[in-house]
Amino acid sequence: MTRIGGHAVVLGASMAGLLAARVLTDFYDRVTVIERDVLGDTAAPRRGVPQSRQPHVVLARCGQILEELFPGIGDELVGDGAHEWRDGDLSRLYTRFGGHLITQSGRIQDPSALKIFYASRPFIESHVRRRVRGLSTLTIVDGHGVDSLTEHAGVVTGVRVTRELDKASRTLAADLVVDATGRGSRTPALLEQMGYPRPREEQLTVNVSYVSMPVRIPDVSLHEYLFIDMFVPGRSHGFAMSRCENDDWVVLVGTLGKHVPPPASVAELMEHAERLMPAHAFQALRTGTPLADIALHRFPASRWRRYDQMARFPDRLLVTGDAVCSFNPIYGQGMTVAAIDAVALHACLRRGADALARRYHREAAKSIQVAWRTAVGSDLALPEVEGRRTLPTKVSNAFIDRILLAAESDPWVAQEFQRVTGMLEPPARLLRPAMLYRVLGKRGDRERSAQTRVSSTA
């Protein structure tokens, strides 16, 4: 790769920051990652990743990108205890979307393209961090907070940081600074301090709360990897239970609406779970061993900071991951979008450093747009979520409902739907003639056959 700079600094060591840092090692002589939390060697939740106690999966596209950046990491994850869905056996997944239970019969036709890893977020992140630490030109500096950016004549020249332990401050000169500090990113305020406007924000208020608990369930107790049945119109509670590494699982109960209180204890979580879950899954949960107390994660709103639309923006500064856009986490898109952002960063750097911020933010916005429409559209299918429902949104949600209805009995439709939700394919794939025939034509045939039978009986 062509070297285009001496030193790049990444702010934040979560998935978005680690993946961006890995890409930057191909183009900069040195890369430094600054992280406020003190990072240990174990896979443990941490303050800087508030969603780390909730269920996580590595969707298909995310897994592909991880393998491209860190060859062999998939085998490492599985070898250390992660579970991999790779045979296309639909009986392994209990997934109910919009009230439709996706078929659990048969196998998808192309399982090799839909590999999904099941593990906890700390487990996944610790494996990526270990790979990043092994890069000879990369240094992770933990226990440091970010104070400000340094800038000269419209160019960001570095970052001022403070060590949390003794409050000692220093300035790191940099040829590029990447903000991957997550939803609480201070870049909008720092831009304002430097005389730039804040980015325009798109937002959808959802007011969801997720309460989760890790539990150990012997492997022989359950055949599935995932159970999920979240909110539907008129029902403001939902659940998910996902395998993690080894015999560990995470169970989650979600509530929708600021006036719907989330479970406040293990007993309340179990009460909700019993009403929501399949009987055999709840029985396994009830006989399992809790590994920690419940953890609450509140998510008030999905938010997209439109850095891609800014007319004025300093050179040599990029923003990535949740610092740009954060979605309702139940859709599991965050790590995948961060991974796709890393691919976009690599493609932009291959074309040099000129106008990098403008090119990168516009390129990253393409994948963000897909995930944003998916998440926001799904949330707006719930009347409990306040927001403007455009005609395209209404039509799209009605069509998705027809797809999910077909997926109740058709493994091929289930496969194609998962290829899109796994971000392997664009949503336009769902409009192909083969899909339209199965979703619209076959359903029409079934309805006409049913009507004929009724008429004959009469």
From TrEMBL:
Ranges for domain FAD-binding: 9-369
Protein name: 2-polyprenyl-6-methoxyphenol hydroxylase-like oxidoreductase
Gene Ontology molecular function terms on file: FAD binding
InterPro entries, sorted: FAD-bd, FAD/NAD-bd_sf
Species this protein is from: Mycolicibacterium aurum
Pfam families for the chain: FAD_binding_3
